[in-house]
Protein 1
Amino acid sequence: MAFRFTIAIAILDVVLLTRSRTDDRCGGTRMSGAPVRMDAVVVRGDDELTGRCRLADYSGSRVSMRRPGPNGYLVRMFPKRIVKGRVVLVTGASAGIGRSVAARLATAGATVVTSARDGTRLRTAARYLPGTVDPVECDLTDQRQRREMIDYVVARHGRLDALVNNAGLGHVGLFGDIDQNSLREIVELNVIAVADLTRLTLPHIADRGGDVVMISSVAGWVPVPPLSLYSATKAAVNALVHALRREAPPGLRIHSINPGPVRTEWLLRAAGLRPSDDEGRRGCSFGTSPERVAEEVYRCLTGYRNRTVAVPRWFGAARLAGLPPLSNALDLALAPVAPLLARWARHYQDSLVTRARREQHGDLDDTTSTLPTSTTPRN
Ligand SMILES: NC(=O)c1ccc[n+]([C@@H]2O[C@H](COP(=O)([O-])OP(=O)(O)OC[C@H]3O[C@@H](n4cnc5c(N)ncnc54)[C@H](OP(=O)(O)O)[C@@H]3O)[C@@H](O)[C@H]2O)c1
């Protein structure tokens, strides 16, 4: 009898909740008004229901509903995983996406270890961030430095909860035009360093339900001519993500974030430059804001599942281009225009290099790609 009564109350609650809306109150969420749909409702004792809420704001969150009180229905949201207090290592955090990720996580209360080669830029960036930010100078193409960095993080902070593999390098041009040093550097940074850092990190995060976030690229789904080698390295990262998910211990999460074009200075670095803060700001490429990518990283660290996301989301449709017959059609369509696309992309890259250079020096007319005197060339 009591059981039937509880079921009846549960059904009544769900009917009422589908006609309600939310507002925050008393540390919980009071339902009163607009539609809420439930995936499942489980009766727990006499006075509590649990289920999943599909409200726009709380999509996928677990909710706990109390029986109606004087102020309506009190719905307690089960909190998402919190970032506060976790130790997160973000590579390539002196600029662009990495810097925004560090800012987002530091704002949320994480202890963020930032790394890049340019220690000065790294420390300057850290100075403006809230909370605990620990800048560590490291060239990720050097295996010894990679190992020492992970050892340092664990020794200094006593733990490591998450790794954001962000540092990456591109090359604009046809594959046949890449010199051997650039080829080696791109593969070393985009693939070997990512795999090695992940390997070194796993023992520290495996039994504490940690996260590895790979900043990959839409180019990993749809390789495009001016970025052939870069696309191939990102495809390797995506393959590593799936391979790891299939062998990772339970609780470990492996995420992949695949941005389209992002407004950063990566095209300057792809031209072989090591830009200063000012040059980087002037020489930004077009695209979505790095903060948007950072927000997705934050969601990865606070969610419960492995995530594969494109930024912006609609770029996710690019995955279809990896399947026949679309992939075959792209092979046929892109091959004849590849030299043209490469020339166009190179021209755009040159204009960014010149812009970074011109505003500093005032009156340079040279629009061809040469190393700016004010930037440090890559070794
Ligand atoms: N921008 C885009 O349109 C775009 C699109 C899709 C994916 N992505 C990916 O997003 C990630 C971040 O790109 P971003 O646009 O933010 O690039 P970015 O502005 O050029 O920043 C790259 C960061 O990586 C660091 N870095 C470069 N080489 C390094 C090395 N050998 N060792 C350690 N750190 C190194 C750089 O600092 P130092 O020079 O001081 O070392 C910098 O902090 C990359 O993996 C990139 O492939 C970018």
Note: The chain has two domains: 2-77, 87-321.
Protein 2
Amino acid sequence: MGGFHRPAEDGSPLIAEDPFQFTSFELLAVTQDIRNQEKANEEDEAEHAHSLLDPHENRQHHQMEYSGGEEYFDVIVVGAGIMGSSTAYHLAKRGKKTLLLEQFDFLHYLGSSHGESRTIRATYPEDYYHPIIAESALLWEQVQQKIGYKVYFKSQHLDMGPSDNKSLQSMIASCLKNSIPHRVLDSRQVSDEFSGRIEIPENWVGVVSEMGGVIKPTKAVSMFQTLAIKNGAVLRDRTEVKNIVKKVGGGVKVVTTNGENFWGKKCVITAGAWVGKLVKTVSGLELPIQPLETNVGYWRIKEGNDNGSVGVDYGFDGDFPTFASYGEPYVYGTPSLEYPGLIKIATHGGYPCDPDKRPWGPGMPVGALKEWIEKRFVGRVDSNGPVATQLCMYSMTPDEDFVIDFLGGEFGKDVVVAGGFSGHGFKMGPAVGRILTDLVLGGEAGVELKHFKISRFKENPQGNVKEFENQVTLKPKLRSRF
Ligand SMILES: Cc1cc2nc3c(=O)[nH]c(=O)nc-3n(C[C@H](O)[C@H](O)[C@H](O)COP(=O)(O)OP(=O)(O)OC[C@H]3O[C@@H](n4cnc5c(N)ncnc54)[C@H](O)[C@@H]3O)c2cc1C
């Protein structure tokens, strides 16, 4: 039996730090929409808070209603990673009676949303992510202000790769089209910009953009769960959902493996690497979402490259950027933050697996990565091998785009599914939670979601057609599955 997750309900002191400079992001119409919506939400929240003058009373109300039997909720969210936790927060903030169910312990390390760092960046080859990223960047700022601790550490972001790389070219075109501030630099300019700490070949370009940085994943998930509870949500861990059944007359019954049932007017499935399995059980639909096991590696920064403690030059204090290197292998990394003297550098990809029968290794091959590190970091990072690694799960779609849609069929718009975040969803968690909330409550997302529809795979098993290559390294066997 799982327990209620109820952190202390202290006040939420504001964080005193520089506000993020969005520059021309603020030109995006979505920004104003978010502000308007946020204002409306603040008013809702104030109204909600007013109606709950005694938070203990509210909490007791839910506890009394939730007695271990069959309970009724406005919305039941299945899966407490970043997507489910953010959704539960948004729903509860709107005053909806919300239940968040998680099969393992809260903040476990078996899915996709755990660990020490996730990159946030605005530079995407696909146009349609820009409104979601812009909204999320604002929400990360706003929500961390509410909790009173920091989950979002800002830095510049550096993309790099061969100048004829189509993804890179598409990303630059998309930045221009969407007024994302960026500078395209040649190899000498990259060397100057980062004082020789990172070097690229002469036929490469570097693209420096202002909106980069690191989100602390476990801390961020905890933040949304805490704020969901503060707004009245009920959170339950160690409760695996076995099935979701349509009820005659409306609503759904959520059946768990420990024998408890919950009733919801609506349901949101945010089950990460398990989403395919759960959706198949619930509706028979086969989503082309392949779980991959992958890992990140931490590499030692050699001594003598900074003015004090090892790694400062490659850390936030040294203004080192988050970075991504296009081509094969696609490499990404973050400034030194979580482990002093170490820097996270990893390849984007993974091994297909069953999330319930994990291989727990061998981890991504590092041969090409070692060479990349030795050359790009000009011998200043020890390229013999990572000194620490951490395993994690990706949920891959064939086109690397998300699935955010109604389940349809007999469930119509009562059940919304969000999955297939394909190794790049974390940064967008706050906006995805808002989108899922609007979808499940009112049927509209407020942003264009056509690229995330399930039906795209009926039209083309490979999903959205792109004029550039995929970024994640997959085995051929995996590709042919879709
Ligand atoms: C190594 C690595 C690096 C990454 N780097 C980045 C990055 O730099 N930037 C970025 O934006 N993104 C990044 N990502 C991707 C990002 O972390 C994921 O897209 C995101 O965490 C997905 O969140 P989720 O909530 O969908 O899945 P999860 O976090 O896995 O959450 C799903 C939850 O549902 C639960 N669940 C499943 N089935 C059931 C059930 N039947 N009943 C109850 N609960 C259930 C699971 O236990 C799990 O807790 C990275 C991912 C990895 C693995």
Note: The CA atoms of residues 404 and 449 lie 7 Å apart.
Protein 3
Amino acid sequence: MEFKSVFIAVFIGTALIVAAFLINGQRPGVDLAHPTASLIRATGKCAECHRQETAAVVHQYETSVHANRGVTCLDCHQPSDGQVSMDHRGFTIALALTAKNCAQCHTTEYDQFQRSRHGAAAWAAVAGAEDFTEDQIEFAERFHPGAIRRPANALAQLEGDGVLTLGCTACHEIGKPNLDGSIGSCTQCHSRHSASIALAREPQTCGQCHMGPDHSQLEIYTESKHGVLFNAQRASMNMAADPKTLSVSDMPVPTCSTCHMSGLDGLKVTHDTTERLSYWLFASTSDKRPTYEQGQAAMKEVCLKCHASTQIDTFYREAEEVVVATNAKVEAVSEIMASLRDEGLISPEPFDEPIDFIEFDYWHYYGRTAKHGAFMGGADFVQWHGNYELLAKRIELEELAEALRREHAND
Ligand code: HEC
Ligand code: HEC
Ligand code: HEC
Ligand code: HEC
Ligand code: HEC
Ligand code: HEC
Ligand code: HEC
Ligand code: HEC
């Protein structure tokens, strides 16, 4: 054999080996760690293109617990029962993914989520019962009587479909029924490709929806001692601690998830955010929930991981006094409005006169804010955004009622 052909053979051989290394280096970590045929077929093939097409997706996936545990692109993206599929570059993938794709591996979380108000109740709050099957309604009504079997929200209807999609729906679709028979979406808190626990524990994650004048939980938290300490000390916290062993040394200061969901120091993690509540604070008049005793005991158990019981009992007693006082103020205003309607001075329709908006803001902004502030450590919200407004708006409303009566007497 001539030297030239040996040289070419060696050159091509070396080039092939180098190329193989280069291509291998481009494959996601999961392939390298578990080089099974099916994984390479799924994740590797998807990543080959998607590293060009949507690099962020592949990058986020690679840093996730899912990649680390060998969950492939196709494990999530293949169609589940009842999902519309589409052909995609030699694969069959689902046209849209829902909570059902996650539920195939995370049934416990899905079942708890379904029992919470983040499930069907959240969607019914905007769209009523219409989009649900009878089975779905029956199931959710067992946990939240009256919360699903109700008409579509009057304000939503008045504002019209166009704005709803990016308004009410964007927050309330956390419990929207999907075409495949499942309900809701897990990625509102988890994001699609990072599956990060640390992200879910961020106050800002809940604050995507829990903010603004009608449910100022993020703002209240931020100004509470808890929020201030969290922001000051977060760098030293282990935000990604395993939920099964999360301790107060990982997170010595609570975020939203600590109080409402986490399994701190041996408590059980829950995706049912209703479990630890004792009042319907969002309601115009806040009654005790049927699960008052269990709800309050469960939340206090969390507080007691970091506080003494006398402190917490006092805190709850004072907060409950704010609920009682706010209920009385809201009821007084409802009575004024009811008598104006009885006297025929205003229409029975909602949201067709300026005074309707004062009545709505009264409990929906100021009343709620005062109650939420009391339970989550927001003095400014109990006082200036809450009770000050409750006083001022009541005077304004009484004046309007008097003016209406005077006008009517002159008719
Ligand atoms: C041969 C290249 C190629 C392969 C292989 C490939 N994709 Fe894609 N994929 C694309 C391109 C190109 C797009 C369109 C990107 C755009 O619209 O900007 C796309 C879009 C998508 C979309 C969005 C579809 C939509 O219409 O909303 C998903 C989801 C997706 N790919 C998932 C996957 C998964 C999962 C795999 C592996 C099972 C995969 N892809 C394999 C090239 C590929
Ligand atoms: C843990 C489940 C999961 C895994 C694993 C996963 N995806 Fe996704 N992916 C989702 C979800 C959920 C969506 C949102 C789909 C929807 O809204 O219908 C999505 C959306 C996408 C989109 C559309 C993004 C956009 O914003 O337009 C692409 C492309 C995609 N995935 C590619 C991939 C690729 C490539 C892999 C593997 C490297 C992968 N996914 C792994 C759950 C997953
Ligand atoms: C094919 C099975 C499978 C699917 C589908 C799947 N996961 Fe997972 N998921 C896992 C496994 C395995 C783990 C690691 C479990 C463990 O460590 O206990 C995990 C862990 C997680 C974690 C915890 C991450 C951490 O930091 O500890 C979250 C959050 C999560 N998944 C959310 C989702 C969401 C949201 C979806 C749907 C978009 C989904 N998963 C789809 C199998 C799956
Ligand atoms: C995508 C929007 C969205 C995100 C993100 C979100 N929530 Fe919610 N949450 C809602 C909606 C909407 C409701 C009201 C449901 C109803 O009562 O109709 C709600 C209700 C609640 C309730 C009251 C439940 C009850 O029984 O009255 C709690 C507590 C709660 N969320 C906690 C959280 C926590 C903690 C997080 C973050 C880990 C979070 N939420 C993230 C939209 C969201
Ligand atoms: C920024 C996110 C967001 C938007 C936009 C939003 N909501 Fe909500 N909504 C929430 C959250 C969070 C709660 C839970 C409040 C609580 O429990 O304190 C809630 C509670 C409610 C409730 C009381 C709970 C129940 O089940 O009865 C109703 C009703 C409601 N929203 C209807 C609507 C309507 C109608 C619209 C649009 C006109 C809308 N929301 C827009 C986040 C939002
Ligand atoms: C309201 C926000 C929210 C929603 C919606 C949500 N999660 Fe979570 N999830 C969390 C938080 C917060 C944690 C971490 C709890 C903790 O601190 O230990 C978590 C933890 C997890 C874990 C790890 C649990 C463990 O014990 O290791 C899995 C798996 C998971 N979620 C899956 C899901 C699935 C599946 C869905 C949809 C059915 C879902 N999540 C919906 C907020 C959410
Ligand atoms: C220190 C613990 C703690 C923290 C931190 C905390 N909460 Fe709360 N939250 C409570 C308590 C206590 C209540 C009132 C419970 C009851 O009804 O007995 C409450 C009530 C609520 C409600 C009202 C439910 C209703 O009936 O209307 C929502 C929604 C909520 N919290 C969301 C959040 C969000 C979002 C965050 C973070 C921005 C947060 N919480 C931070 C303890 C906490
Ligand atoms: C993970 C630990 C942790 C949990 C859980 C927790 N807290 Fe705290 N809390 C703290 C820390 C730390 C401080 C600041 C204490 C200090 O100033 O030394 C604090 C401060 C407070 C303060 C302010 C005290 C003051 O005088 O400034 C109140 C009130 C409070 N917590 C109530 C609660 C209630 C009510 C719960 C349960 C719903 C709760 N906390 C749950 C850690 C926690």
Note: The radius of gyration is 27 Å.
Protein 4
Amino acid sequence: MRNIRNIRDKDSPVIESISQGLYRIEVPLPKSPLKALNAYFIKGEKRNLLIDNGFNRPECRDALFSALHELNPSQTATDYFITHGHADHAGLTPELPGVSDGSAKAMGSSRDAELINSTTTGPGFWETVLNRMRPHGLSEQEMIAMRDNHPAARYCPSQAVPYQPVAEGDTLTYADFVLQVVAVPGHTPGQLSLYAPKQRFFFAGDHILGTITPNIAHWSGFPDALGQYLQSLEKIRRMDIHLTLTGHRALVERTTERIDELVAHHRKRLVGRAVGYHFDIVVREDF
Ligand SMILES: [Zn+2]
């Protein structure tokens, strides 16, 4: 039985104890429809692990660092895992303790590490994005306004950091959690998740969300993002999962049913207008 309790007063950022040594930190995302990020903290004897962190903005920084101070008063060394390269998950990575001096590992996929680092290193990333929009008729003014208001530009990390690349097949051990790295491309080209077989916990990033559907976008050099996403859902559906720890909003206790809902959602939207999508991968007899 999942045992969640709020260990702070109602006016403070939320920290929830999910199981022995595992906490959810709610990092507010002001004015974002996502409302908040779920970061996860595994408290180990020698090293801790923080999964995802938040936008590079004061509200996120204050909540996250306050929670880390409370959960880790002895300042035991902490490593960092970034599920994917969106700024609401990776915006604070350069500021986390130990990252700048290399005493802590910041781990992520090489693909998404390159992505998030590219948003911090001058105009190259956004030039590429705007060049893709230009042929579709947006005015220069509209594109500049879009860029300047985009959270990935406003709240991106303060600088690039040297991520330690991890990939499917790698295993990370913190406290009682033996975490298998599982690639789930789709929401981003290089999104990674973590599976803890003993606890049957699945740290999903934004691959599976409970009350909203993960956004599937167009990425340069990543054709058929939706097809990739659906394949990644199929892969996770075969796993034995007791609890999915999502990147936003509610955690998911019935993962198989939620995956079926997500597949059905895309199937419904695709029917009649998406000739060429690989439905044979995802259509089952049971819905
Ligand atoms: Zn995301």
Note: The pocket of zinc ion is lined by residues 84, 86, 187, 206 (CB under 6 Å).
